[in-house]
Structure formats: C-alpha cells, structure tokens
Write a structure and sequence with these properties.
single chain; about 30% helix; seven-stranded parallel β-sheet; globular; alpha/beta; about 25% strand; Rossmann fold
Length: about 190
C-alpha cells in the first residue's frame, strides 16, 4: 500500500508560543511530528508539507492577524519537521519534480488552492494518506476532506494535530469519520 504523509502547516508562527498565530499547546506536537518524519524518511514515504507563504496584503489577513509572511522566521518549519532532501512547490503554473519532502506553498487555508497539488497527487498515486498538523478544524480539515475526495484511505493522526477549539475539533473529527476517514495515532502509523 503506497502511503503519503500530509504535514499541515507545521511552521514556527503556529507551533511556538512566540509565533504570530500560536496554536496553544502546538509545541507539544513536535515530538510526534518528528517521529512521523523519521519514519517516512526510513521507509521511503513522501511527505507533502503544506506551508503558508503569505504576502503582506493577502486576503486572509482580513480575518486573521499577519502570520507566515514569506521569508520570515515565522514562515519556516522547525528542523525536526524537515527531511534532508526536499523541494519547495510554489503556487504557480509549471511542472514539478517529486522529492522525498515537498513544501507546498499556499496563500489560503485550503492546500488544494496550490496549482500543482493535484498534479503531485496524481503522480504519486497513493493508496493511503496520513494527515497531521495544525489547525484541526481549519487547514487539517480542508486537507483531509479534500483527500477523501480521491477515494483513497485517509487517516488523521490524533496525537499530532492541535485545534483552536476543542468543540470544533470534535465536530470535525466526527464528520471526518462519518465520511469514511480513519483516526489513528503516531505509534500506530
């Protein structure tokens, strides 16, 4: 069974208390995310890491404080979440070469707004997607439900996601499992 990991928005601005849009408790995910990354690297599993890469005037800032401005420290990912061999996938037309880790840039909540993501998924032709990161009820939700549309197995790693609202997260996870998604843990992956 060909597996692809989806690492959603594990960037300094979300994961660290000093981050511009810190998700409370998210720093505690880094150990499990690092373990998943090591597992992927050791088993030849491609990691698609979505990353916010905002311009100063992105529309998202009408709703949320400025965060993950392209090129800033807050936009970067912690070293523990990175494989040695990786490539950045800009949100622009053009081809893309598959790498062990693909940093898929986006300017909105939905990773599927990256013009190359569907092409990457078609080329990888996975049977299973394992999803983790932040924020459960926003960007993780959009990625997971978008992946469910592929008809393939989609799992959310419950001890490697963090939410802003426990109630919204519980509702999202219930909707996800009702739609055929599977909940798992880092140890079970």
């Amino acid at each position: 069974m060909k597996t692809v990991f989806f690492d959603i928005d594990t960037q300094f601005d979300f994961l660290t208390p000093a981050g511009a849009l810190y998700v409370p408790g998210a720093e505690r995910l880094i150990g499990n995310i690092a373990a998943l990354k090591r597992y992927a690297g050791a088993h030849g599993i491609t990691v698609i890491s979505t990353v916010d890469a905002h311009a100063e005037d992105d529309a998202e800032f009408r709703q949320w404080p400025h965060h993950c401005i392209a090129g800033t420290l807050g936009q970067h990912k912690p070293a523990a979440t990175l494989l040695e061999k990786r490539t950045i996938v800009k949100n622009a037309p053009g081809g893309v070469a598959i790498a062990p880790q693909m940093l898929v840039e986006k300017q909105t909540f939905d990773c599927f707004t990256n013009l190359k993501l569907r092409e990457i998924l078609a080329e990888l032709n996975a049977d299973r997607y394992v999803v983790y990161g932040v924020v459960t009820e926003i960007c993780v939700k959009l990625a997971a439900f978008g992946l469910l549309e592929t008809g393939k197995r989609v799992e959310i790693v419950t001890d490697a996601v963090r939410s802003l609202s426990a109630e919204a997260s519980a509702k999202m996870l219930a909707e996800f499992t009702a739609a055929g998604g599977v909940l798992t843990t880092a140890a079970k992956v």
